Amino acid sequence: MASAPDSDPDPRREAHALVASARALLQELVEEGVTDSLTPPTTAGPSRDASGRVDTRPPTPRSAPPSRPDGGAAPAVSPTASAMDREAVPWADRRPTLEEVRSHLGECVRCDLARGRHSIVFGDGNPDADLMFVGEAPGEQEDLRGLPFVGRAGELLTQMIEKGIGIPRSQVYICNIVKCRPPRNRNPLPPEVSACRPFLDGQIRAVAPRVIVTLGKPAAGLLLGREVAITRLRGTWQEYQGIPLMPTLHPAYVLRQYTPENRRAVWQDLKAAWERSRA
Ligand code: URA
Q: How far separated are the first and last CA of the chain, in Å rounded?
């Protein structure tokens, strides 16, 4: 006798199918911003880095002060800045140089991320770039090497720039919302994002790109000042302070969901961004 069309006689296969569809639904909710994570907040399981690998490093001790070149004790981390009391910067009314922005950042201890970092990952590339990429936060490799997007997600981004657009990576400028790696690659918290914001804005002013490409939901949401659903927003022209902005998917997301559709989507977005930057 034929079994009912919607029930699988093998309970294990049915359970697998249920888990797979629940996971797919949760992924959509994460993408739409309904929830922040695929991991329940109370789990103590291993975290994954931006490219999906399990982070096997022990959690950074919260009390460990950042090491300093002079070997002295690090100053206490200052209270975090909120959007209301964003730090005043000397370049408020003019275009700074990237060196000036970097030097003002100094050996930053403006937020708790200073405690666990190896390096400040400021940015990389052409200070006069027409195209500027903004990601979320450094991962493990970036923290170790002091450069943005040099891990697995970075390799994909580099390929998209070099093989997709057909220009050397050194021709564009790449940076992140926050300049220090969050512990175990968690999302940066609002006070951390706020504390770093003047430096991201300083970088944008300094480079004055013709087009900004945001990588993933947090960068698009931050620069547009609103909650966004990146899978719907990507590929549509937006604007940040008069600069055309193209939101696209984060390369770590593309690595996790390595489908022809996602790869094609990012390729189209980058091509559109590049063409507009040449116009
Ligand atoms: N993911 C990011 O958002 N930025 C990096 O620099 C690396 C991975």
A: 67
